[in-house]
Specification:
The complex is a heterodimer of chains A (246) and B (668). Chain A is built from 7 helices and 11 strands. With 246 residues, chain A is of the alpha+beta class. In chain A, the strands form 3 sheets. In chain A, strands 1-6-7-11-10-9-8 form a 7-stranded mixed beta sheet, sandwiched between helices. A two-stranded antiparallel sheet of chain A has the order 2-5. Chain B is of the alpha+beta class. Chain B has 5 domains: 76 residues, Phenylalanyl-tRNA Synthetase, Chain B, domain 1 (2-Layer Sandwich), CATH 3.30.56.10; 209 residues, Phenylalanyl-trna Synthetase, Chain B, domain 3 (Phenylalanyl-tRNA Synthetase, Chain B, domain 3, 3-Layer(bba) Sandwich), CATH 3.50.40; 69 residues, Phenylalanyl-tRNA Synthetase, Chain B, domain 1 (2-Layer Sandwich); 159 residues, Bira Bifunctional Protein, Domain 2 (BirA Bifunctional Protein, domain 2); 88 residues, 2-Layer Sandwich (Alpha-Beta Plaits), CATH 3.30.70. Helix content of chain B is 30%, strand content 24%. Chain B is elongated, with a radius of gyration of 37 Å. About 2% of the residues of chain B have low confidence. The chains are: A alpha+beta (246), B alpha+beta (668). Chains A and B meet through helix 1, strand 1, strand 6, strand 7 and helix 4 of A and helix 2, helix 7, helix 10, helix 12 and helix 13 of B.
Chain lengths: 246, 668
């Protein structure tokens, strides 16, 4: 019998995290890597020419030698490489409603995203995120904390604590940065918050009736933490001396 | 935003918490603190502490200033901000005033201008009107505050306008009044119109060409400044300036952002306009800068303030249901406490119908528009630490299966079973059909059009490490997106590298076997094209196409895919140095097991002090002859610190040989 191969550690971690949420009834959604401006920004309450767009350096796609950036409602704006898995939120809500399915929604969306930033040991122009979206009636930050505590205890052990710090992501309000205490070190692990009413509206829901929370894990960061990896570039080097260690 | 602790103190009557304590408060109630810098004089005495706060766009309306930061301190410590800090106003002793016209009131919501006769040279020393009673800082204090946040002193007028900008958040500008011809007009630029800009710390001012979407401050001759972005050279302040016109204005955030971005002229001023500030702030800015100019030029004479303010700002009101605090935060906060928090923010509260509150938001708080914004303010000030986690209701319904995900994960499992390892390669490459603007590097300008190119390089690279990996065949796969003119597709690429020739086994066959297994499992008939290069071969399969013929069984569950915890292994560093391979074959009596032989070899390696250099080993051949058995081991040596030499490997082999001979075994 021949030896088994190895799954990439990113796949392993996505699977581990998803299996935690699967137990709670979360389904999976996938989105495109080549996104439209509407889904990636406008529908997420990030208007054109707003400083919040600076928070994510974007790879815009060129067309006929020119950057595609002109806002065109009919074709959903210019094309770009998805900067965040949050774009999948809108597509998911719209599709569900089109199929006649109403909340509660529970969904996990893993995906590769891109940022036009210089790369080094801790930054890559491509990385993986795992988005979570939960929509129901009477959703609170306490539910968000409950579900994340559950996830981090399963990921990093029962003693793991989490805490919220105020932050800003245009698609959630209130917005929080989440730290996890792994061992005796607090580490920033994800961004989260209650889904902004404008995002629910863009998804096709009445924000007076429905609320939700959303969060986005940086998978690469979790992988690096879990396995003690000191250089993010190892994840994308295609080197079996690395992959076959896991 | 850099915040000087000394500067912040000027807003309070009583001592405020230390910079470290404030940083802690900001972190858990306001925003991230990126650093704390302690400033010392030549005798190493602490002169000030500077907090570097990461102000994001929501709080940038009011927190890109020491005043805004002082308000945050007040929200968190309950200490009131001094009310009389800039109450003094300037005596108007001249009739002269600029004529101001706003052509586009949407772009310019307010423009205040005032004429000042400077009269004497600047007084660089302390203010003469008794700095004790004046709430404004004296010139020396002002310069040290500016220096603390990294702003160098330029001239008394520029220092004053800069200081007020960092103090209250209102950008200001001053023109040499004698060089302004006629009325000051705020208007759209004419296409092709040019302006020579003021020099900056980055170098001499350049000439830029404007578009009709840009806006300028102009006089009869032409542009004096790019509104909100940068001043022009023609009416710039010089050492010989005798009369000035001070501008305190409000410009449209979007238009300023577009112009500043296009011309690559992001400035402290444009940054504040871009994030939008209230036009109400202009009067505070004008008042404060006038006081500072009068301190710098004690005999200066001031004209009246001309205030063009076509549409006055109105307060945002929010009808707020206080029950939302508990519903959204999931914590019960006494109503009195909620009101206290809002009142500290100077938010007016009036009881409205149905137990709701009608909230009146202060002008500066452009971030507060809807009820959710109020929930956030209450939550963060009260403290998110009070929230206790509650697991939301769990669904017992069957989780729907997404065919695309199910298929890709099932294929991953099948390939891993067959000895293939998964890689995740770069999506940005040197050539393709989808090109990105402003790429990080020329060889990363395109989104990949196939997985094959990356996979072929990956197989070649790994084949060179086959001995180290202990593999005779390199077997790799990737599932990822590719990008063509018509959009993206999900592809599977499988790569095989035959390192060791085996009779009758061709690299193509290994590849064909892999997808025949997939065909068998998926009930399909894939026949992908093989791309071969020497002993390496790659194929690529379109999973979106496969999904059209493959149907996920109706009773499929994600749990069938056996997702579990990730490997517990910690990463072991990969040596950047080359490895050395040595084989050894030992003839031993038939009753000696391979393990015993290996133990003896290991002892030899240890005797050479080289245990740490053994990267891996394998038993690659065994045969029996004349009551004896031969075991052949392959050993791979590698150092983390250097390139091993043949000589060093030779010494290890010598020690192994000594050990073998000691056992009476024959090394072949």
């Amino acid at each position: 019998m021949q030896a088994k191969g190895h799954l990439h550690p990113i796949t392993q971690t996505i699977r581990e995290i998803y299996s935690i949420f699967y137990e709670l009834g979360f389904e999976i959604a996938l989105g495109p890597e080549l996104e439209r401006e509407y889904y990636n920004f406008d529908a997420l309450n990030i208007p054109a020419d707003h400083p919040s767009r600076d928070m994510q350096d974007t790879f815009w796609v060129k067309k006929n030698g020119k950057t595609e950036r002109s806002k065109d409602e009919k074709n959903l704006g210019g094309r770009l490489l998805a900067t965040q898995t949050s774009a999948i939120q809108i597509r998911f809500m719209q599709e569900k409603l089109k199929e006649g399915i109403t909340p509660p929604f529970r969904v996990i969306a893993p995906g590769k995203v891109f940022r036009n930033e210089a790369t080094d040991a801790t930054h890559e122009a491509q990385f993986f995120q795992l988005e979570g979206l939960y929509v129901d009636q009477n959703v609170s930050l306490a539910h968000l904390k409950g579900i994340l505590e559950n996830a981090f205890k399963k990921l990093f052990g029962n003693k793991t604590e989490i805490r919220f710090r105020p932050s800003y992501f245009p698609f959630v309000e209130p917005a929080v940065e989440v730290d996890a205490k792994v061992g005796d070190r607090w580490m920033e692990v994800l961004g989260a918050g209650l889904v902004h009413p404008n995002v629910l509206k863009a998804g096709g829901l009445d924000p007076d009736k429905w609320q939700g929370f959303a969060f986005a894990f940086g998978i690469d960061r979790i992988v690096m933490l879990k396995h003690g990896i000191d250089d993010i570039r190892l994840l994308y080097g295609g080197d079996l001396r690395f992959v076959n260690q896991f | 935003m850099k915040v000087s602790h000394k500067w912040l103190e000027t807003y309070f009557d009583k001592p405020i918490p230390s910079a470290d304590a404030l940083a802690e408060l900001f972190t858990f109630h306001s925003f991230e603190v990126e650093g704390i810098e302690r400033l010392r004089d030549s005798t190493y005495k602490l002169t000030d502490t500077v907090i570097d706060a990461k102000v994001l766009p929501d709080r940038a309306h009011y927190c890109l200033s020491h005043l805004g930061m002082a308000e945050e301190v007040s929200f968190l410590t309950k200490q009131p901000v001094k009310s009389n800090r800039s109450s003094r106003s300037i005596l108007v002793s001249l009739d002269a005033k600029p004529t101001i016209k706003i052509e586009d009131p949407h772009f310019c919501r307010r423009y205040m201008g005032r004429y000042v006769e400077l009269n004497s040279a600047a007084s660089s020393a302390h203010s003469k009107d008794g700095s004790q009673s004046s709430p404004a800082p004296n010139a020396e204090q002002m310069r040290s505050f500016l220096a603390a946040i990294g702003q160098r002193s330029i001239s008394p007028i520029v220092d004053a306008t800069n200081f007020v900008m960092f103090d209250v958040g209102q950008p200001l500008h001053a023109f040499d009044a004698d060089k302004v011809q006629g009325a000051i007009v705020v208007r759209a630029a004419k296409k092709g119109e040019k302006i020579e800009l003021l020099d900056s710390s980055e170098g001499p001012g350049k000439e830029v060409e404007l578009l009709a979407s840009d806006h300028v401050i102009a006089d009869d001759i032409g542009p004096l400044a790019i509104a909100g972005v940068k001043g022009g050279k023609r009416a710039g302040i010089t050492a010989s300036t005798k009369h000035i016109i001070i501008e305190s204005a409000n410009f449209d955030s979007t238009a300023v952002r577009r112009t500043a971005t296009r011309l690559d002229l992001r400035s402290e001023s444009s940054k504040r306009y871009e994030n939008e500030i209230t036009p109400e702030l202009a009067s505070l800015g004008m008042n404060d800068v006038s006081i500072l100019v009068s301190q710098a030029y004690p005999s200066a004479k001031f004209g009246p303030i001309v205030d063009q303010y076509p549409v006055k700002a109105i307060h945002t009101t929010i009808t707020f249901d206080p029950i939302l605090v508990e519903m959204r935060l999931g914590i019960r906060i006494p109503s009195r406490e909620v009101k206290d928090i809002l009142e500290r923010m100077d938010i007016g509260i009036a009881e409205a119908e149905g137990g709701k509150w009608l909230l009146t938001v202060p002008f500066t708080r452009l971030d507060l528009k809807i009820s959710e914004d109020i929930v956030e303010e209450v939550g963060r000030i009260y403290g998110y630490g009070h929230i206790q986690g509650i697991l939301p209701p769990v669904s017992k319904a069957k989780v729907p299966v997404l065919p695309a995900y199910y298929l890709s994960e099932m294929i991953k499992n099948m390939l891993v079973e067959q000895g293939f390892s998964e890689v995740s390669l770069y999506s940005l490459v040197a050539k393709g059909e989808v090109e990105t603007a402003y790429p990080l590097a020329r060889d990363k300008a395109f989104a990949r059009a196939n997985l094959t190119d990356g996979m072929m390089a990956c197989v070649e690279k790994n084949a060179m490490n086959a001995d180290l990996l202990g593999l005779e065949v390199i077997k790799v796969f990737e599932i990822g997106r590719v990008f063509g003119k018509d959009g993206e597709s999900t592809m599977l690429s499988i790569g095989v590298g035959q390192v060791k020739k085996v009779k009758g086994e061709k690299v193509d066959n290994i590849l064909i076997n892999s997808w025949e297994m997939l065909n068998k499992e998926l009930g399909n008939n894939l026949k992908p094209k093989i791309i071969a290069k020497g002993t390496n071969a790659v194929c690529e399969i379109n999973l979106d196409e496969l999904l059209k013929s493959y149907k996920v069984p109706a009773n499929a569950l994600y749990s069938d895919l056996h997702f579990g915890p990730a490997s517990p292994n910690m990463y072991r560093k990969i040596s950047p140095y080359p490895f050395i391979v040595r084989d050894i074959a030992v003839f031993v009596p038939e009753n000696i097991e391979a393990d015993n032989v290996w133990l003896a070899i290991e002892k030899g390696i240890a005797n050479a002090g080289a245990s740490g250099l053994l990267a891996c080993h394998s038993l690659f051949d065994t045969f029996k002859k004349d009551g004896k058995v031969s075991y052949a081991f392959r050993m791979v040596f590698q150092s983390m610190d250097k390139t091993l030499t043949d000589d060093e490997a030779g010494k290890i082999m010598e020690k192994i040989n000594i050990e073998m001979k000691g056992k009476g075994w024959e090394v072949r």
